[in-house]
Design brief:
The structure is a single chain. The chain has 268 residues and is mainly alpha-helical. It has two domains: 80 residues, Winged helix-like DNA-binding domain superfamily/Winged helix DNA-binding domain (Arc Repressor Mutant, subunit A, Orthogonal Bundle); 148 residues, Four Helix Bundle (Hemerythrin (Met), subunit A) (Up-down Bundle). The chain is 71% helix and 4% strand. The chain contains 13 helices and three strands, in the order αααβααββαααααααα. A three-stranded antiparallel sheet has the order 1-3-2. β2 and β3 form a beta hairpin. The protein is globular, with a radius of gyration of 30 Å.
């Protein structure tokens, strides 16, 4: 008969000691539920970095187009942009997708992306809608305007004027943009403000043609001064007239340049 060895009983004191072990001493491999948040954070950080790079690329391309460094129908080659920004094609494609949504870039199957060119007919249609929307914003803008808002417009006007004198065209673009966003933002209609901004973006590519003429820049800064005077004095009718006339130089300059380059037959 074979005798089985008796199993050693664990003393109660040893059981209590084992129960006091920290989780890090008893678990070697991380559990799936612990790995998941880390992976999610890594993916979120990667997406945020890609978005930041795409936004940078899109902004720089917008500036190139506004300043006339990129012309209508010019190709935007992905590899060239990758080399310029030291990044990969996913970032570049995301940037081009965002610019396409704004109407600044056009992507053509099997050819890639180009700077969108607007025909004279398209320009006139966009500006006709812009005029009515911006006049509406001026018409419903409540008076009196707060002194803090007038002071902000004054500051932007001075910066815009100084940029013209210094021939700093990038600052001219941004201060003009912020001036009008601030002005129309006073109307208080969020839907109208957003629609004005979307149409404004569609014609970024034509701004260079008016800004190339000193008289057009002088006309713009004089209008800004008069708009502030109308706001301060509560003169709605003057503000509406200034708003309507302020838009005219840009499409006129673009259409003249377009017809010189492509001829009148491209209007359709």
């Amino acid at each position: 008969m074979t005798l089985r060895p008796q199993r050693r009983r664990t003393p109660p004191s040893e059981k209590r000691q084992r129960s006091k072990l920290a989780p890090s001493e008893t678990l070697v491999e991380p559990q799936p539920q612990e790995r998941a948040p880390k992976r999610a954070n890594e993916r979120a950080n990667k997406r945020a970095n890609e978005r930041a790079m795409a936004d940078l690329i899109a902004t720089r391309l917008e500036e190139d187009i506004v300043l006339g460094r990129r012309h209508p129908r010019e190709r935007l080659i992905e590899q060239d942009l990758c080399d310029r920004f030291n990044t990969h094609r996913a970032d570049v494609r995301l940037a081009l997708f965002e610019l396409e949504k704004k109407g600044i870039v056009q992507r053509i199957p099997n050819r890639g992306a180009i700077v969108r060119d607007l025909t004279p007919k398209e320009v006139m249609e966009i500006y006709a809608v812009r005029e009515e929307l911006e006049v509406m914003a001026a018409r419903i803008l409540p008076f009196p305007v707060a002194e803090s808002d007038l002071a902000k417009l004054d500051r932007l006007q001075r910066q815009h004027s100084a940029a013209i004198d210094n021939e700093d065209m990038l600052t001219v673009f941004y201060t003009n943009l912020y001036f009008h966003q601030t002005l129309f933002g006073l109307c208080g209609n969020a839907c109208l403000i957003e629609t004005i901004r979307q149409l404004e973006q569609k014609v970024y590519g034509i701004r260079y043609y008016a800004n190339a003429f000193p008289e057009a820049l002088d006309h713009a800064r004089r209008d800004h001064v008069e708009m502030i005077k109308a706001l301060r004095a509560g003169r709605h009718d003057d503000l509406i007239t200034l708003t309507r006339n302020h838009l005219k130089p840009s499409p006129e300059a673009y259409i003249r340049a377009y017809e010189r380059r492509f001829g009148n037959s491209s209007q359709a």
